[in-house]
Model the fold of this input.
Amino acid sequence: MEFFLSRWVRRLRVLREHRRVEREMGEEMRLHVAMEADELMRERGLSSEEAHRQAMIAFGGVERHIADARVSRGLGVLDRMRFSWLDVKIGLRMLAKYPGLSLVSVIGMSVAIAIGAGGFAAIDALMDPSVPLDDGERVVSLQNNIEGRDNPQRHALHDFAVWRTELKSIADLAAFAIDGRNVVTPSGIEVIEVAEMTASGFRVARVSPLLGRTLLDDDERAGAPPVVVLGYDEWQRRFHADPSVIGSTVRMGTTVHTVVGVMPEGFRFPVNQRYWVPLRLNALNFPRGGGPEIYVFGRLADDVTIEGAQAELTTLGRRMAAEYPDTHELLRPVVLPYTYAFTGVHSPTMGWVLRGFQLALGLLLVVVAVNVAVLVYARTAARTSEIVVRSALGAARTRIVAQLFAEAVVLSAIAAAIGLGIAAFALARTQAFLEAASNNWVPFWMQLSLSPSAMLYTTGLVLVAGVIVGVFPALQVTGRGLQASLQQISTRGSQMQLGPVWTALIVAQVALAVAALPFAGYIAGNSLKRSMQQPNYAANEIVQGWVSLEGDEALQEADSATRHAIETRVVSGTRELLRRIETEPMVSAVAYTSAFPGAEEGARIEVDTSGARHYVRTTLSDTDMFAVLGVPLLAGRAFTPADTLPNANTVIVDRVFAEQILGGGNVLGRRIRTVERNATGGADDAGPWLEIVGVVREFGRQPDFDPANAKMYLPTALRYAFSTGLTIRLDNAAAAASFGQRLRELAAAVDPGLRMHQVSTAADAERESQQSLLAIAIAVAAITGSVLLLSAAGIYAMMSFTVVRRRREIGIRTALGAQPRRILSGIFARASAQLGAGVAGGLLLAIAIDRAMGVGPLSGRGVLLIPGVVALVLIIGLLAALGPARRGLAVSPMETLREE
Amino acid sequence: MATKADLLQGTLDLLILKTLTLEPLHGWGISKRIQQMSRNVLEVNQGSLYPALYRLEDRGLIKAAWGVSPEGRRAKFYTLTAAGRKAAGEEEAAWQLFTTAVNHVLKSATA
Done:
């Protein structure tokens, strides 16, 4: 074994230094010749020239001996397989020689690689189980999964209490909840997501504070003085890195906290936080299965594996399910790698699904590569004579296949470079978008970028594509016996056989195009159309945001008196806030709402006369919402305060609703009602009949491609909601752009616990949704475009290939006096049969997809896309057949026969 | 009777190893030494010599190093390794056994 290994090590070294080795072999052999010549001169008195000549003859060709010697060094096989710079150059030359084919292939493959590599990296980021902490892979999350549901049950205060005392396999069990608080910062009031965490959380993290201390168990005690630990950035920003910050105070919402510590730079545990306060929730204050949502985590005890901890937790879970069947019957507690609780990987099954998806993304490239292989096959087939002649001159089959593989790798490597560029750009944009949009919920350890494993995966994809594109056609072309090939060249010209496989490929290709393209076109088209729509209301002058009460969620399950007090506090606080906003100098009007334009909720309704059901969008709002937004009434009247009274039952619809749902005309006085599917499967629950009192112009962009875009508006009085949307109209755009900060201050001044979330101008919100729509449109269009391009090129290549193969037959038939029209119709009959089979298969597939999706081109005006795609595919296919057929007919019969 | 004989297949390796037991030599030197020692009967084909040398090097029986020849030329000298010395002994013993056996056959056939 050792001998075997050392021999291969020597060979690899020789391979690595092959240039030096070859040079030395040449030198050694030339020395041999020189010494032989010297001897001939000495012993036979020959002239130097003659001696050298004879020595050379006696030795034979140096180059040939070097080649033999290489084989004896065991490098023969490696030698034949090895690429040289020449192969790469030939590959590049081939790209330039067939620019159309290269362009189509590179575009198709680069899009596929971008999706493959980008998707792989994104899933990798989600699936990364290690949190960057000391011994981070031993930090775990614990949660109650609900049997048969995707989301875990996080109202786990009671469970946490039990787990904390009973679990032996987890050292330092900890929990945290996240709550937004008004915090005064140098730039004014900010709503900051604060981590309410048990002191044990810091022990799990094993990170020492930069200054002062972390939280202590004693801080969690009810009545202990409120304390806060600051993040490094906040210490820099708010306290200008003051080393004597310990003991200072920070007002957070309703409570003043004393700073007890500062964490080092980069510490953003548990998700992405900068403030830590003790978690002081007592399970006894809440019913089992109630209370706020908490995340439970801990560190595996020494010598315990995650499976060991799971076994202990499962036992405990069974006991709790038996003891408390009402709340725990369906709960399945699980131990996961820490990061999985935050990236949606709630179970090992989910992990496998994601991993499977990750690999499946690569299949896209396989499909594309097969397409490219078909194109390349046609090209390779055209080079058959070159390949056969090379074989006859002594080139080994491995060498020829290796060269064609190298050519394919050059092609896919260029596509990979472009694809990786696209993927890196898209990932960076996605990360920036998520960080901006998710309000610090992008975990601190998650970085969307092309990870080393994604690069490795891409390299694998390139090689797989190289094998499909280069090796398979090459094996097919070089597979036949040399003699047979030579014979074929000399008698029939270089003609390849296309078997049933290729016919099946044509049919599958057409079917795929017909089935997939209408849907892709529909989605891209709708997204693009909606991204172009104007907001159609005074978005520039409007500021919007959500108001809610800090710690509100924790009190949801409190007793009714406490709850009532909270609801009153929220409603009166919001009312006072509205009043104060109205008195602000630049504010012209303000209204509350349940949803902002473009983000309305979905609803199912029934119309009075027809009884037909429709999906629409709806919003509950203040009576003067349309005036605030600057949206004109087209018919009827606006809401009045009387409309908010019980049993008023009025509704205003937009023009799209009036035209699409009610068929236009005068819709005032018509009645509609909401119908909700009964959760238990019984008859639908219908609301009261609502009378249409007004029609407004449609406004607001729809942020997705859901076809339901008719909207209706219901009036409501200000009442308690977990959060209420505020829409504020200012005098001009500049005032709107700078009003956000003032809004937070006003809210905090009314009640320090009142927080304003997601404050922005309506124009910015519209722009954000416009950008994401545009991104969807571009992504889908790029994929669709590349698929269409490849399908078209594939169909063209295969059809013209079929016809070229029959060129000889066409020539003979023409020579025998057949009518060109008859010959053409013969060719077209076959082409049409293949295209027809593909179209039929594709239509069936399209209908199946439509049924499965529920939404799609068949259910709307997009149905026109299907005949469009069918026509496109047919035209491409027939054009592909026509060109080569005409060329075939143009060849003089004598010429064709002479080729015989 | 032929004055020069072709090398029997497989004997070249043994001859190279045996030649190198005396001193390190370069390729031309090895071919000349074999020719001399066989009293001009055996002539090494160059096309076989170098592949044989690289094969033996590949098997770790000899090793090569660049040096200067007595004529002052830069040349690659081959030396026997410990494994090569052992292999030379074994192959020689096998060869002796083989030739003795062949001789016995020849003698008994003529007797």
The two ends of chain B are 22 Å apart (CA to CA).
